[in-house]
Each structure stands twice: as structure tokens, then as C-alpha cells.
């Protein structure tokens, strides 16, 4: 039996190593970052303030900008420029028509007033195309009455701004067309536009290709024929919601180069407290943590615009180069898909881990063996269309098991320091095993992602507590009652309530999306800037608990030691979860765990010293309800 177990362990280690080595190679190859700025906003800013757009773009090019990215200009965005006015059907449209000295529109007609002469004919043609044969259109010179719904009309567009394209070409900047499901343009129209010039790629925003996927086949054909790079724009909200693109399979081919791009909201750029320096920290974080290779910058609207944004570009370029990256056009990550047999070898290792834990928990050998057999048989699913769900299911099981296995198997180590470091090392190794099972190109690009985060956060704590306390469930109430008597009733109630609130916050923050306070956000960015890979707070704050209970396990009450070990699971969960962020490069996750370990050890030394001081003052476990000085 030992030979079989050893063979499975060796097979799993070899298979996991092969996958992780290839993944690290893929993540390390792509070292070039493309720098774009929102051209539509540059155009609007130059129009509103009278700046020379050509000079603006030229200075940004000199600063190092690679290109400008632009959506189509929706009609609603032309209103603040004074190009048009749109008044909704009803009282508003009637009042506006009266001001213009025109007859009242019907109750269903919206009023479109065109104020730039060169836009009159294109807008009349656009409205008639939107109206089709069903809706009536009436034209009074430069005023159009239309039955096209107000919101539909506001979202409509004349296409990409020609003056911006011309200025970008003159400045030598790459023009990147951006397609959004909310831009009013259809997939077919966008495909037609891509045939009108030379583009470095094409960018898609949000989680959907389009509201109407008709024309996706045309998009796929033109993107493939022209060899355009597919830039997937991930905004701040998109990165925190993790919803895969809808319709992407209709546009991409097996050869399409895909680059992850990132954009920050206009509200943040307009915040007076946000500067090029602290905004750059956001960009660097997106590059290191999210495998982003295209930065979609919003310009700052601050005087003097050109000089301010040129400094912004230079500062960001310097930060990117400090990471060892280069600037230019972005390239997609090389595709890699481990062979199902290699993945199956890793799956057997996860099954063996669960088998060992089952035996440790006193589950009958027959049941544990049947569980391992079930995992082994499930590996045949890797050769079927359901391979993704097999991997996600066993990956979740493996992540849960890896989160408390080291504590379950190694907590009795004689030397507390050896036990402390071996537990964290073993958890890291097991996390890498599970990460290998889920690693491939699609997980790195995050078209797929790890599921069941809240289960992975909560279940290990429950299972480990059950392993400790279920075997002596009958005497456990007496032990608890004894500790309450020693500790004091109100102190016990307060401690339980405090731990309950902590655990609630812990679960609330578990998952792909949760709110983060500004102070914590600033601290994260500072840690990212100083340490490159920010350690996770759960590890820094909970590692000291593990070190303390291991160090004083012979002097503390048994129940307190076990409670501390249960709390320590939180840090082990955090280690495993770091590697379940499969978009994050392996090197960054390893560095993050290392920083968490040495900082947690540093705080742990302080905790050990603090407890030693308490022992010196009280002479025993200090919270006994009766204060005593000196030794017993």
C-alpha cells in the first residue's frame, strides 16, 4: 500500500510541476505593455477648452503614449458640446418647439435640433435609418421630429469621430476602435468600420460583446482576416464581478491574440485627491495582479491639460519600466492547455490528500477508499465536454482540503518553530497542487475562474473544528463550562460575540466582490508599491495566532489552544485562495505568501513576547477571574 501511495504522490508532483513550469513560462514571456488614452475625452476636452487637439496628441506621443482608444460618439455626448439638442417627447418637446417658433410635435415625437451645419444631412440620414418604414420623421431645416424613442436616439451614433482619427494619424499614434454594447452601434456596423483603415487591434468593453449579437460572424471574419488583436477591456467593476464575456465565442477564433486591458472610472480621475502618482499605483497593480498588458488611461481634466497629462504618461512609463517591462504594442499570452492525462495525475494527488484527511478524521477505511476511487473515476471526465466542471468541482474540493490539511496533519510537531513553518510550507505546496489542476490559458485570461470562494473560506474552519471537537463531544460542554468559570461569564460572552463579528466580517469579505474602505485601499496600494506583491492582511494578522498557540501549547488550556488552531485556519485559507486567483502570475502569488509569512512571523514574535509578559505578571493563564502577581 505504501508503494502505491508513494507512486501516486510522485506522479502528482511530476504532473503538477510540468503544468506549473509551463504556466510560469507563459506568464514570463509577455513583457510588453501598450499605453492608450481615451481619445474621445481628449477630443471633448480640446473642444470645450479651445485646445489644439493636434498639439495635444503630439505632446502625448513625445511623452511615450502608444495610441488613443475611442468609442463611437453617441448623440447624448454631442449635447454638452453644443452640437445638438435632444428633447424628449411630450411637454419638453412641445415647449422647445415653441421656443423655436415651430409647430408642436405629436405626443410621440422627440425633437432633435442640429446646431452644426455639417451635421444636418448625416443626422437626417441616421434618424431615417433608425425610423425604418414604421416611424414617421418630419424635417424643418435643421430641426428633426422623430418617433424614435428618446433613449434609443440618445444612444445612437454617427460613428467614430473623423477629426480624432485624422489627428491621431498626424501625430503618429495608433488608433484603437472601442466597441461597447451600450454605444448604440451594432456588431455589423462595427465590422464594416474595421475595413476602413489600419488599426493595431480592436477593443471590447464590459461583459458582453453586444446587446444584439447579429453580425458577430462578420466581426469574427474581419478580425481573423486582418489579424487584429482582441483587447478585452476590464473596468474596475468588471474586475470585481468576474462575469465571463457573453458572445465572445462568436467573435474569437483559436488564433485570435487576446490582451487584457484595464480602465479606471471617470469619477476616480475627477477626484481632486487622485494624482498621476497614486493613479499609477493602480495601473501597476493591474499589471502585476491581473496580467493586464494594455492600459486604457483617462486624461486628467486639470490645468494645464497638456503638460499635466504629459507628466502623467511619463510617470506611468517610468513605473512600468521599473517592473522590467517594455512599452509598445501589446501581445496576447501564448495559449497552453495541459494534456488531460497530466491533469488526471494532479487530480489523483488531490484525491489522495482527501483520502489521508478522511483517515485522520477516523472515517472508515472503506468509505475513504470509495471516495478516492470516485475521484479517480472522475478523471475520465477530463476527456469529455464536461471537463471544465470536473476540474472546477474537484478544484473546489482540493482547495477546501488544502486549507486545513497541514494543520490537521502537522500541528503536533515538537518544535513550535518547525511546526509553524512546516504548516505554512505544506499549505503552499498543496495550494500549488490545486492551482496546477486549474491552470491553463483560459483561466489565466479569466474566461473561466475558480468557483465557490465562500465555501472555500468557511468550510475548512468548520471541518477542522469538527475534527478537533467531535471525538470528545460529550465532555466538550464540561470543558467549555470550566473555561467560562475561569474566564468569567461576561468576559466569555464578550469574547464569543467578538469572535462572531470577526467571523461574519471574514465571510462578508470572502468572494470576488466586496467593498473596500479608502484607508485600506490606500494601504494596499502602498504595500504594492513597496513590496511589489501585497501580502494579504488575513495572513499577517492570523499567523501570529498560530505561532503563539504552538509556542505556548503546553502552558495554555487545551480548549484555548484548539480554538487558536481553528482561528489559524483563516490564514491557511488565505494562502490557498491566493493561488486560486488564477489570473495572477505564480511568481506574484508566491511572493505575496512569502511577504505574509515573514510579516506574520514578525507580528507573531511580538505576540509571543506579549503573552510571555502576561505570564510573568499573572503567573498562569492570565484571564482566570482572579488577579495574581508573581509565580504560582
What features would you highlight for this structure?
about 625 residues; alpha/beta; 7-stranded parallel beta barrel; 4-stranded antiparallel β-sheet; 12 strands; elongated; disordered C terminus
Q: What does this molecule look like?
A:
The protein is of the alpha/beta class. 59% of the residues lie in helices and 9% in strands. It has 27 helices and twelve strands. It has helices at residues 2-29, 39-49, 53-63, 75-78, 91-100, 120-131, 150-155, 162-171, 187-193, 216-226, 236-241, 266-269, 276-290, 305-322, 340-360, 365-378, 387-402, 405-410, 416-438, 441-444, 453-469, 476-487, 489-508, 518-531, 537-551, 558-580, 586-618; strands spanning 32-38, 67-70, 84-87, 110-114, 137-140, 143-146, 174-179, 201-205, 229-235, 258-263, 294-297, 326-327. The strands form two sheets. It has a seven-stranded parallel β-barrel with strand order 1-2-7-8-9-10-11. It has a four-stranded antiparallel beta sheet with strand order 3-4-6-5, with helices on both faces. Strand 9 (229-235), helix 11 and strand 10 (258-263) form a beta-alpha-beta unit. Helix 1 packs across helix 15, helix 13 (276-290) runs parallel beside helix 14 and helix 17 packs across helix 21. The radius of gyration is 30 Å and the shape is elongated. The two termini are 51 Å apart. The model is unreliable at 236-244 and 624-632 (pLDDT under 50).
Measured distance between first and last alpha carbons: 51 Å
**Count of individual beta strands:** 12
Largest pleated sheet = 7 strands, parallel, barrel
Please report the number of helical segments.
27
Task: Report mean pLDDT, rounded to a whole number.
Answer: 83
Helix content range? 55-70%
Radius of gyration: 30 Å
Strand order of the largest sheet: 1-2-7-8-9-10-11
Helix-strand makeup class: alpha/beta
Low-confidence stretches: 236-244, 624-632
